[in-house]
Structures are given as structure tokens and as C-alpha cells.
Amino acid sequence: MEQQVATFKVKKGLAQMLKGGVIMDVVTPDHAKIAEDAGAVAVMALERVPADIRTHGGVARMSDPELIIQIMDAVSIPVMAKCRIGHFVEAQILEALGVDYIDESEVLTPADEEHHIYKHDFKVPFVCGCRNLGEALRRIGEGAAMIRTKGEAGTGDVVEAVRHARSVLGEIRRLQNMPEEELMSFAKEIGAPFELVKETRELGRLPVVNFAAGGIATPADAALMMQLGVDGVFVGSGIFKSGDPAKRAEAIVKATTHYQDPKILGDVSRNLGEPMVGRQVTDIPEADLISTRGW
Amino acid sequence: MDIGVLALQGDFSEHFQVLQTLSVSARLVRLPGDLSGLDGLIIPGGESTTIGKLAAAYDLIEPLRQFGREHAIWGTCAGAIFLSKDARRDQPLLELMDIRVERNAFGRQVDSFEINLDVPFFKDGIEHPYHAIFIRAPIISAVDRDARTLLTLPDGRIVAAQQGKLLATSFHPELTPDTRFHAYFLDLARS
Hints:
The complex is a heterodimer.
Chain A: E1 4-5, H1 8-18, E2 22-26, H2 29-38, E3 42-45, H3 50-56, H4 65-74, E4 79-84, H5 88-97, E5 101-105, E6 126-130, H6 133-142, E7 146-149, H7 159-176, H8 183-190, H9 194-203, E8 209-212, H10 219-228, E9 232-235, H11 237-240, H12 245-257, H13 262-268
Parallel strand pairs in A: 2-3, 2-9, 3-4, 4-5, 5-6, 6-7, 7-8, 8-9
Helix pairs in contact in A: 2-4, 2-12, 7-9, 10-12
Chain B: E1 2-6, H1 12-21, E2 25-29, E3 40-43, H2 48-57, H3 61-70, E4 72-76, H4 78-83, E5 84-86, E6 97-102, E7 113-117, E8 130-134, E9 139-143, E10 148-152, E11 158-163, E12 166-169, H5 180-190
């Protein structure tokens, strides 16, 4: 047999290697080095962290390829980059640059309000956001090889991350307790491909790796998401919008590994300096919510 | 027999599940005390820089070296890098095996691949080739002293090496249902 590249197994496989780890948003090669030195398993290269996208306003697009290349040159760990929902040409460009994962992300302004990218056509793997099981399985149906619960990016408020993780994991628990004749109605109810509903039920988990994202700002937040049952965490604004990014980054890495050990969690949480200035999700007008983008 | 799986970061639960399928008593290892009483240890795939830093931060480097002088250790991908003497980069290594590795030797993620390999040291390893999965994989660029080459790609590049009870593979047997590599390692741990 010849060598086979870009199979779903190797796409999904890279996400499996990231499990138990922290993926950090970085906006410069120097940030990327700090993240790598702190023990990040991957970095997300972008021009502005979500908190700044919120305050900056305007249309948020794929980052300048020059910046992404500089970040790829700066570190040995995988580099991810974001394209807009439905913007398959931005995705083609990111694939040609050689990024290791594409995040088809609601944090950027959507390019298509109805259709996400058909991700099976790409050699590079994709991660996509979700708020519930149906959304997760629709994205996997389109070819996503990794899922992250959305949370509410750029807030430093973990409440939506918790809501979305509980929703996905709770629906999987419900699915497992369901008699088989109810599966088709359930698939219809949540708008998910039937075969993926069956597979999820058999596995007792999503068929791909599932990280949490959106609002994680402290080691305790990361450990909370891990104890709820996700495979790892994305930290966006939480690190580089805080007082001491290197120290906080390392503490969140340690907390993600030792998430079941409150003594270690206490140790790593000491003297971290100022956390990012948060913004309560309940104070944000509905039209400004990011997690409702995509379907 | 008790086998540990280093659970600092990476796909340790995949290894853990294979061990359970083989009815082997398995335990996750995160702190030095978790090593006591184990007959062997698996270091999973993941990011070698992350695993190394966490091992150093929680004083696992020396206990792991000590463990590897007496017991079997198998490193897959990042684990193989962690076992090596030299990864041509400044990162914490166990330096237990006389091998040099080249990280990300095949390129970036789009170059990750699957391939069937003949494995002459498996009883049925020619009739039933081993399906190996390489993800941003390292190659073993040099094998010195007591280490020996176990397996190469068709182009001759080394992807598995052994040194006594220490085993390093560039690929991920934990991602396939084929348990022959795990069985091979368990034999080493038993010997």
C-alpha cells in the first residue's frame, strides 16, 4: 500500500495528540514563544485576540499571512489559524500556507450565514465551534476533525463555556440512556446526521476530540472545564490580556494536567497578578454575542 | 503485571484503553509517587515540549530515568522524543536511549500519513503488514551504542528502535485496533 495523506484518521489524530493540553491565542511571534515555553500544545495565530475584536468592532477577517508565517517559523508546536465561517477561500489560503489546523471560527465575522465550509475537501484538518450536540455533529458531518464548545469569546466569563459543555455532554448522556427506536427522532430533533448520532451513542462521547473555549481566564476555569469532561482547553484573551502572561500561561497548563488535584490547583493559582478585565456575558446585548453566529 | 501510562498530556487515554482491551492492569502516572510498583511505563503521543516541561516541573525527570534503568518504557511519537538523548533542540529529555531524533521530520500536519509496514519480528508481520499512523512524526536519525534499529520505512528512514527494555516508535499503535505492538511491549515488560 502506498502512503496515504490527509485521511480523516490523521486529521482527527493530531487533535488526539493535543488532548490534556492548552491551545493559546497569540498575536506576535514573541507571544508564540512565550506560549510554547509555558507548555502550550499549540498556538492560534491571529491579529487580535477576541477581547480586542470586541472593542475594535468592524469586520474581523483571516489574519495577514505574513504574521501567520512568522509565527509558524517561531515555534515547533502546531500552529492553527482562523478563517471566517463559510469563507472557503480563506481556508484554501491557510491550507496553502501550511497551517496545521484551521479554526472555522465565529470569532471572525461570518462570510456565509447559511453554509459552513465543506471541510472534507481539504487536506488540512478543521476545528469548529458548537453550543450543543446537534451543532457539533453537523460540523463533524461537514468534515470537522475536532470540536470546541464555543463559550463567549473575549469576555473572561466562563459561564457560556460551562453552558455549552454541559449541553453537549448532557445530551450525550441522554442519548446513551435512550432506547434505539428513539434515535431517529432524536437525530431529527437536534438536526444531526443519524449515523453520527448512532456513533456518538456507541462511543459515549463525540467521535472527535472536544475542547472547551470562550471565557477561560484562570487555572480554576481550565480545571473546571476538564472536570466537566472536555479533552482540553483553548485560552484566547485570558492569557495575553492578563498582568503576567508567561506565569498565567504556565499555571493554566499545569492546571489542565492536574485538574483533579485541588492542592496543585491552589499552588498554581497563587500570585498570578491581574487576570484579564472580564465582561459579564449577561451585560452584553444579544446582538453583540459571538456564540450565536453559525448554526 | 501493572503498566503505567504517563498522563501529563497527550493521547494517554487511547493507550490506557488498549491496555484494558488486553486485560492488563493499567494506571495513569502524573506524579513521581505514581511510579511505585509498576512493571512498565508507556509515554504517549502528544507535544514533547509540553510533556517535558510538565515532567520537569513536577520532579519526574530523575524518577523516570531511575525507572527506565530497571523497567520497560515505551515512547510513541512525543514519547520517543522524550526517551531520546538528543532532539536537536533545547527541551527536557530523559536521555535514556542512545538515539537521536528529528522532530516533525516529514513536514507539517498536511504531510501526516498512514502506511502499511512489514514487521519481520512479528510472527505474522509479513503476511499481515502493520498499519502505522504518522502524525507530525519524528524520525530516528541516528542509533548509537546499545540501541538498535527495529523498523524502517521503505526509503530506509528509521521509525522504531529498541535498547534493552526501552522501545521507541515514531508512529501511534494506540490509534489503531491492531494490538501487536502493545503485546510486543508487554513481553518486554514481563521479561
